[in-house]
């Protein structure tokens, strides 16, 4: 039709003008923009792989089948994981206990079980899987529109006019590249959520380590308290024998009874701490807080210095999932800049219909096209600038996160090294000196050269140093867990045997 030909020619000229106007806003991304790494593959036992090909359309091409035109971001494979739903069974039953046949609670197995059972990781995977379903939606065309119209009186038997009706269909087609950019934005958002899932895994591992070492410390302090009670009871028996022989006064027995009462109080407090540690571990395992656990290991060892600070900081910048998540968000926002710029280009609506209102048979089949007229450059320029500012904000957050990670690594490493030196001091000097002082006090009391109060002070100092040593070991491993959290991955230990293999005896 001549009218349609004239409109098409005007549209071509108009599109050329609009494309020239699209160059006005700056489309350049910020300098040194980070690039997201490939998405991790979570190893939680309840994450089941799903064939990616099954999620693709049965026919036709998508934006994944052709290279990207943006030049800034490359499409990535859509998430191929779905969480397995909780079975609802009682995981507290003995048959479901993964540690039922173990005498000692292994740390690595505990971490694996927590990551497999904890609902927070399953929630993160579900969020990841939900985001993965966004891409097929945003790259799909709008549904076609069926157009109908008819004149009811013309269908009456008494009507002298031919039956009049219109049947048509219309399809909206966005400007070339818009759907691809929307799909890439959705897929980079999936990448960000996948790294959030990795961050949840890392956070669960650190929380499990902290609860495990609290459990260890409560157990060791309880054992030391029990040993102390036995020794004080022996001291009381010695004091009673000397009292009956009129060698000491009644005060020695009273001091022993007072010390035993204090130790009984400490025993109750430590039993409470142990119950709290067990409840925390069971909560991480997603089961009842009162389920029994195997005993913690009898001792912990101190490792050598993991790595130097510079190497650990470089490793952290490569491994931290938060950085990769931010980088993926920046990639998504860069595509949003390009998409905002493409809004200067019109979208089209192609339609075809059969119009029986026309009396001439030749005029009834019709084709047409609608097109929006993007004249409001002010609104579109503001949208482009808004998207660019979002990229700048995320880039600044990325730089800030890098600085924070470097600080976290340095602080955690300093604490680990300090714990190593303190533990070495305990092993080489403090504990042997406390043991020698106790033995000298015991011999002196039996010989009658010192009083019972000095003997109790020597015993108290010895126990306090033993407890201080265990707390230093525990604090070392806690800080090592914080260092691994700062680095973003476990640090292979280079354990050494402590100079004092076992705590001194009584």
Protein architecture, described:
- The model is unreliable at 1-33, 38-95 and 494-506 (pLDDT under 50).
- This protein has helices at 2-21, 107-117, 119-132, 135-138, 178-244, 250-284, 309-319, 321-342, 377-447, 452-487, and strands spanning 47-49, 81-83, 145-150, 165-173, 348-355, 365-371.
- The longest helix is centred in the last third of the chain and has 71 residues, at 377-447.
- It contains ten helices and six strands.
- The radius of gyration is 37 Å and the shape is elongated.
- The strands form two sheets. The protein has a four-stranded antiparallel sheet with strand order 3-4-5-6, with no helix packed on it. Strands 1-2 form a two-stranded antiparallel sheet.
- Helix 2 crosses helix 5, helix 5 (178-244) packs antiparallel against helix 8 and helix 9 runs antiparallel to helix 10.
Largest sheet: 4 strands, antiparallel
What gyration radius follows from the Cα positions, in whole Å? 37 Å
String of helices and strands:
HEEHHHEEHHHHEEHH
- Helical residue percent band: 55-70%
Mean pLDDT: 78
Overall strand count: 6
Strand order of the largest sheet: 3-4-5-6
Structural class: alpha+beta
Strand content: 5-15%
CATH superfamily: Outer membrane efflux proteins (OEP)
CA distance, first residue to last residue: 108 Å
Determine the CATH topology: Outer membrane efflux proteins (OEP)
CATH architectural label: Up-down Bundle
The number of distinct structural domains comes to 1
What's the overall geometry?
elongated
